[in-house]
Design brief:
Elements lengths: L3 H10 L42 H6 L10 E8 L5 H11 L2 E5 L5 E7 L3 H6 L3 E6 L2 E4 L4 H4 L2 H6 L8 E6 L22 E2 L2 E2 L7 E6 L20 H10 L5 H5 L11 E6 L6 E3 H13 L1 H4 L1 E6 L1 E3 L12 H11 L3 E5 L19 E6 L23 E4 L5 E3 L3 E3 L17
Parallel strand pairs: 6-10, 6-12, 9-10, 12-14, 14-15, 15-16
Antiparallel strand pairs: 1-3, 1-4, 2-3, 5-11, 5-13, 7-8, 17-18
Helix pairs in contact: 9-11
């Protein structure tokens, strides 16, 4: 899983306790990020070869019955300014647009529109570009010594003092390996005579549910859950304490940074699917709450499942937000994907500034299924590769399973074998 090696570097080297002062603020980028308003990217982007102000993938989606439902299609509407509630009303009155979310880090309103009203939508003041709200899905322990993570532990770096965001299917709050900071089942007192007792403190410090029907208020206090298992598996690889594994399996399946805490950001459903909108919502929340929860690293083992070759540009909306996360000071690792051929890394793994992680077998040979670059713009991807097959970690219900994990040492992205 590419979680290991990078985890040691990402999770462990990105924090104050590891030598970086807490007051350190990420340096400002030398110029505007690709895809930002200042670049006016919609005027020249390669994502719109016919210059109709619609992403080429949207042109193709309009021909697919799976995406046009009852005459409507889901899109991301880009503006030439940060949109307000007034712009949302304008879309509704001017083109019958049904908004589902208005972003605040990127100038986008997500929602659906009748196909025959797309020209009206594009004609509205301030609207500059339309992108299909495409689907995303999961990119499905001997790894610790194989990546020499134990040597990093020997130096005193185990993740203590930082928080890792798992942007995935959620996290199981009851699993023994990721429910608290200690392996003692009797360790339940979070404070002793009013004094914090770190070993017994919860490992999951916040949870955000980006699914449309979640009614999450963004406070981070929503009860964690994982109705799939993928996110919990990655959380265990990244920060699991290993509790219970020694007794049950004769080996301790400990995570790369067992001293780190977790933030769960649920952007994928119980079936392992989601959309650009839901993933971007979770990413925005992570940026907003970085300082509150000291989020220094994040893992995303997901990617676009349709026309990846058309989503490699840096102005791609999901890719742009990934670069924004890095600019905000979050070390972000993303799975390369499982296509197996060259030039097949799409959004968000194609993002310039993230650490894109390919997969190897235990013999260090590149796994046959691991996607490869370069991107259309010439960026070399993946940036690193780590074990992506047969890595053991937690599964829901307080047990451990040997599913193939795919990016966790960079903070987890993984490939799961069923």
């Amino acid at each position: 899983m590419r979680i290991l090696l990078v985890a040691a570097l990402l999770l462990l080297s990105s924090v104050g306790p590891f030598g970086i002062p807490e007051e350190t603020v990420p340096a400002a980028a030398a110029g505007p990020l690709p895809g930002s308003l200042e670049t006016r990217w919609w005027e020249w982007t390669a994502m719109d070869r016919d210059r109709n102000r619609m992403h080429d993938a949207l042109d193709l989606a309009l021909l697919e019955e799976q995406f046009v439902i009852n005459g409507r299609i889901e899109v991301l509407v880009d503006f030439d300014h940060m949109p307000t509630a007034a712009n949302e009303e304008l879309l509704a009155h001017g083109a019958g647009f049904e908004a589902s979310w208005r972003f605040h880090h990127v100038p986008i309103i997500a929602g659906s529109v009748a196909v025959d009203r797309l020209p009206e939508l594009l004609a509205l003041p301030g609207v500059v570009f339309l992108t299909h709200n495409s689907p995303v899905e999961l990119l499905l322990d001997g790894a610790i010594p194989e990546h020499n993570v134990n040597q990093v532990w020997d130096l005193g770096f185990d993740g203590t003092g930082i928080t890792v965001a798992i942007i995935d299917t959620g996290i199981d709050p009851d699993h023994l390996s990721i429910n608290d900071m200690d392996d003692d089942a009797e360790c339940t007192a979070t404070t002793i005579q009013g004094v914090p007792n770190p070993p017994c403190q919860k490992k999951i410090v916040a949870f955000y549910d980006a699914l449309d029907d979640s009614a999450d208020d963004g406070s981070g206090e929503t009860t964690p859950y994982d109705d799939h298992g993928h996110g919990s598996h990655c959380a265990g690889i990244a920060t699991g304490t290993g509790e219970g594994s020694q007794e049950a399996y004769g080996a301790e399946y400990r995570g790369v940074a067992p001293g780190a805490q977790l933030v769960g950001v649920k952007v994928l459903s119980g079936s392992g699917g989601g959309s650009f909108e839901e993933v971007m919502r979770g990413m925005e929340w992570t940026i907003d709450n970085q300082q509150k929860y000291n989020i220094r690293a994040a893992s995303m083992s997901l990617g676009g499942v349709w026309l990846a070759e058309l989503t490699q540009e840096q102005e791609e909306r999901l890719t742009h937000v990934a670069n924004m996360m890095v600019a905000a000071g979050i070390a972000l690792t993303i799975a390369a994907g499982n296509s197996g051929y060259y030039g097949s890394i799409g959004t968000p793994g194609a993002a310039r500034d993230v650490i894109t992680v390919g997969a190897t077998e235990h013999d260090r040979e590149l796994a046959f299924y691991s996607s490869k670059g370069p991107t259309h713009e010439g960026y070399i991807k993946p940036n690193i590769a780590a074990i992506g097959s047969s890595v053991w970690s937690v599964q829901n219900d307080d047990s451990v399973s040997g599913e193939a994990t795919y990016v966790a040492y960079s903070a987890p992205a993984w490939r799961r074998r069923w």
